[in-house]
Design goal:
It is a single chain. The chain is an alpha/beta fold. The protein has 13 helices and 11 strands. Helix 1 packs across helix 3.
């Protein structure tokens, strides 16, 4: 057995499991001739003894890094996607021999740079992308280079690529339906930035609902889900004081809904009297802190689990029954 300050090795796992070191190595490398039960037994022992493979040596031997890169916008993380998405991805990777590296990006930065950094520096075996655009150059580059990847969101490209997405069109349509059922007819949408693909989906669902339920669209001004929350708050104050104000609001994120609501209330508005609001959220926080907001859940943690499983399967060369999945809203 290893000494207290000795780094765990394959021989340590072999001693714990009673298997040969060569069998342990093949199990950790997901060899096809090793049974699933043996692989799980070896992985459990590896976690228990704190074994971590030498990444540099592994890459030299196999050409693999056993790393998945998650490219993620981490700015203004309040009731947002970062924590639940990371939780879902990490749950899957923890049960595998892969580690996770988060590559931060900013809305104002070049979205291709993080991807090229991963490819050119050999940082990972697969990439998870977020914030897809209708024509997404990252998808083209990764496809052309046959690099394993999956996107959180669809594109409008002719390239058939793997994705997990939330049905933002269904969310917006259901939001309008609920507001119309409350007698609200002058509705506003706090939408994603126009260059992102889910802006189109959410806007399409909102406007289809406007038509079907005989409502009218009201402008919120030049704000979107990337707007700093202080500016969203300020817009809420101005909106209630305007002559063309909404009596129903659909908000594409929990944090934006809370900021907008705070601004409206500071200007003298009362929710459920002057207006109602529906918000998309990844958890139940708005129900706890502002139960007056009608919450529709996006299971971002579940999406993270699906994204991690998909990219691991692609990186391992395993066929998937479906490379594309759309997840639906829930209460």
């Amino acid at each position: 057995m290893k000494q207290p300050n000795e780094k765990p090795t394959l021989k340590t796992i072999a001693q714990v499991t009673g298997l040969a070191a060569a069998t342990v190595s093949r199990a950790l490398n997901d060899a096809a001739d090793i049974s699933a039960s043996t692989k799980e037994r070896v992985r459990l022992a590896a976690r228990q003894v704190g074994y971590r493979p030498n990444r540099a040596g592994l890459r030299l031997r196999t050409g693999k890094t056993r790393v998945v890169a998650l490219v993620l916008n981490i700015e203004d993380e309040i009731l947002g996607i970062v924590s639940p998405l990371l939780s879902g991805v990490a749950e899957v990777l923890e049960a595998s021999e892969y580690n996770l590296v988060v590559i931060p990006e900013t809305p104002a930065g070049d979205p291709l740079k993080p991807v090229m950094d991963v490819i050119n520096n050999g940082m990972a075996d697969g990439i998870i992308l977020t914030r897809t655009q209708p024509y997404d150059l990252r998808v083209k580059v990764l496809t052309d280079r046959d690099f394993p990847f999956v996107t959180y969101g669809r594109t409008d490209m002719k390239i058939k690529h793997p994705y997990i997405d939330f049905d933002n069109e269904a969310f917006a349509y259901e939001s309008v339906r609920r507001l119309a059922a409350l007698g609200r007819r002058n509705l506003a949408l706090l939408a994603p930035p126009p260059h992102l693909m889910f802006h189109r989906h959410m806007s399409d669902g909102f406007r289809r609902g406007i038509r079907d339920f005989d409502c009218m669209e009201m402008p919120l001004g030049d704000i979107d889900l990337d707007t700093p929350l202080q500016e969203v708050f300020n817009r809420g104050r101005k909106h209630f004081l305007s002559t063309h104000r909404a009596d129903g609001i659909v908000a594409g994120s929990a944090s934006a809904s809370v900021a907008l609501l705070a601004g409206l209330e500071q200007a003298g508005a009362t929710i459920q009297a002057d207006f109602d609001m529906v918000a998309k959220e990844p958890a139940r926080f708005t129900e706890w802190i502002r139960p007056e907001i009608i919450a529709i859940n996006e299971d971002i943690r579940g999406s993270g689990i699906a994204l991690a499983r998909t990219v691991l399967s692609i990186a391992a060369g395993h066929p998937l029954q479906s490379l594309q999945q759309v997840l639906f809203p829930s209460d």
